[in-house]
Amino acid sequence: MRVALAVHPASGHGAAGRVADAVAGRLRAVVDDLTVVSAASVEESRALMLRARDAGLDLVVVLGGDGSAHQGVQFCAEHDVALAVVPAGTGNDLVRALGGPTESLRAADALVEALGRGAARKLDLGRVDGGPWFATVLCAGFDSAVNERVNRMRWPHGRRRYDLAILAELAALRPKRLVVDTDDGRMELDAVLVALGNTPYYGGGIPVCPDADPADGLLDVTVVGRASRLDLLRILPGLRTGRHVDHPAVRTLRARRVSLGGDNDWIAYADGERIRPLPATVECVPGALTVIG
């Protein structure tokens, strides 16, 4: 087996760089050939992985956070290469959804064990306008504004960063017109956020689409309609448990293909990465990615 270990040393405020040698050592014990790719930018990571692919590649192991995993998803989905993720970020939502350990060295040990068993499975992916892929959740509205703020923040780390960003964005909250088109019909309403989940989690473990299954060929759609700041404050605690879907302002549905638009200035984020302003059409592509672990 030929494997590339893609290390993003800055992930998790340097956590990935600190454990890279230990993770590489574990992998070398069980694979035939290991190429370690260390990249400081998205462009450098893509170029190095392409070189590894040209030499023959069976598996990409990403050591980093959800942003790093997102780049691995792009490469692996386009080039039919299997993906594994050793988490070393602040959110680690893809690993959480797949049921793996969220501590780096425990995850590396679990990966070694999975490689020994030949454990592989197919994962659905979301795709935006035939372009970028995503593995977890695409969001727009209030939560994408939170993402924009989180990406500008340097403190605190982990869930507290998202919690503070949520409180800051509440001050600017205004419902906007949203149009959601699916094969089953059109929903047009004033809303504050929409989330399309291939897996349940975003924002460091928030189950915004709590029943999303990455092997059912469908996207779970969560829409929070017209809601005041007080309404959102009542909804937000339930986000941590998935009970927000019981609130009267929240609507849910499932669809293979979803078009998002309307009179708003919302920006779509997916896997925590900025994608594009709406409108956008999002499709679930069944079995688009092979994952190990």
Automatic annotation (TrEMBL):
<comment type="similarity">
    <text>Belongs to the diacylglycerol/lipid kinase family.</text>
</comment>
<dbReference type="InterPro" id="IPR050187">
    <property type="entry name" value="Lipid_Phosphate_FormReg"/>
</dbReference>
<keyword id="KW-0460">Magnesium</keyword>
<dbReference type="InterPro" id="IPR001206">
    <property type="entry name" value="Diacylglycerol_kinase_cat_dom"/>
</dbReference>
<keyword id="KW-0067">ATP-binding</keyword>
<keyword id="KW-0479">Metal-binding</keyword>
<dbReference type="InterPro" id="IPR045540">
    <property type="entry name" value="YegS/DAGK_C"/>
</dbReference>
<dbReference type="InterPro" id="IPR016064">
    <property type="entry name" value="NAD/diacylglycerol_kinase_sf"/>
</dbReference>
<keyword id="KW-0443">Lipid metabolism</keyword>
<dbReference type="GO" id="GO:0046872">
    <property type="term" value="F:metal ion binding"/>
</dbReference>
<protein>
    <submittedName>
        <fullName>Sphingosine kinase</fullName>
    </submittedName>
</protein>
<keyword id="KW-0444">Lipid biosynthesis</keyword>
<dbReference type="InterPro" id="IPR005218">
    <property type="entry name" value="Diacylglycerol/lipid_kinase"/>
</dbReference>
<keyword id="KW-0418">Kinase</keyword>
<keyword id="KW-0594">Phospholipid biosynthesis</keyword>
<keyword id="KW-0808">Transferase</keyword>
<dbReference type="GO" id="GO:0005886">
    <property type="term" value="C:plasma membrane"/>
</dbReference>
<keyword id="KW-1208">Phospholipid metabolism</keyword>
<dbReference type="GO" id="GO:0008654">
    <property type="term" value="P:phospholipid biosynthetic process"/>
</dbReference>
<feature type="domain" description="DAGKc">
    <location>
        <begin position="1"/>
        <end position="132"/>
    </location>
</feature>
<dbReference type="GO" id="GO:0004143">
    <property type="term" value="F:ATP-dependent diacylglycerol kinase activity"/>
</dbReference>
<dbReference type="InterPro" id="IPR017438">
    <property type="entry name" value="ATP-NAD_kinase_N"/>
</dbReference>
<dbReference type="Pfam" id="PF00781">
    <property type="entry name" value="DAGK_cat"/>
</dbReference>
<dbReference type="GO" id="GO:0005524">
    <property type="term" value="F:ATP binding"/>
</dbReference>
<dbReference type="Pfam" id="PF19279">
    <property type="entry name" value="YegS_C"/>
</dbReference>
<keyword id="KW-0547">Nucleotide-binding</keyword>
